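Please, structure for the following, as tokens.
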Amino acid sequence: NYNYGRFLLRAIDSALAQEDDNFEVVVVDDGSTDNSVAIARSRTSSKLRVIEKANGGQASAINAGFLASAGEWIIFLDSDDWYEPDALRTLRREFQDGVAKVHFPLTTYNEATGEFGEILPRSLSRGNVIQEVAEAGNYKWPPTSGNMFRRKALEKIMPIPEAPYRICADVYVCLMVAAHGAIASVDRPLGFYCVHGENAYARATFQLKKKYLFSQAMGLLRVITVARQLLG
């Protein structure tokens, strides 16, 4: 979370309301200057921890949250997004040997109009996606909140380099984790992606975002290609 106090309780409450017993919720506040910390601390639960840190960007916050967590599976929920109550219960069905990540689509929500919109994305990759990455430079995956990672796979690629990934840190984790196991996919939307005009992605022009993501994807593709050669 960074200065999204107005959205934060919705995200926290959706996490705490999961129809499951075995989970933890770690809120990382990345140096907010609004009332985010007070809002986060207004919720009391044995499952909830709140961590305050100096502002460092998305990768820095994700790194801090990962270090503070203990679970075998990890989701990095953006504080303006939220989940359906049965999201975790549904995802558990995909926790198979050899799976490094389970992903699922999100339903877009327009904060200004209160309207629900398109499913993002409309299709997702699954299985061993290395060939897809090698051919296209990427594979089909959802925004940050739509990805759940196996801890053992994350341990092989973390921490995320913080300086180049103040935004778009999901590009790093989603691409790099693909080299460490299969991708499982749930077709039904299990959460909501909030569009409100102040999203970090929205503040960049479309072309700039496209070029940034492409350059990051190609750089990580080279890393994966070299790793495959070294490992035979």
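Residues 201-208 have pLDDT under 50 and may be disordered. The CA atoms of residues 144 and 170 lie 6 Å apart.
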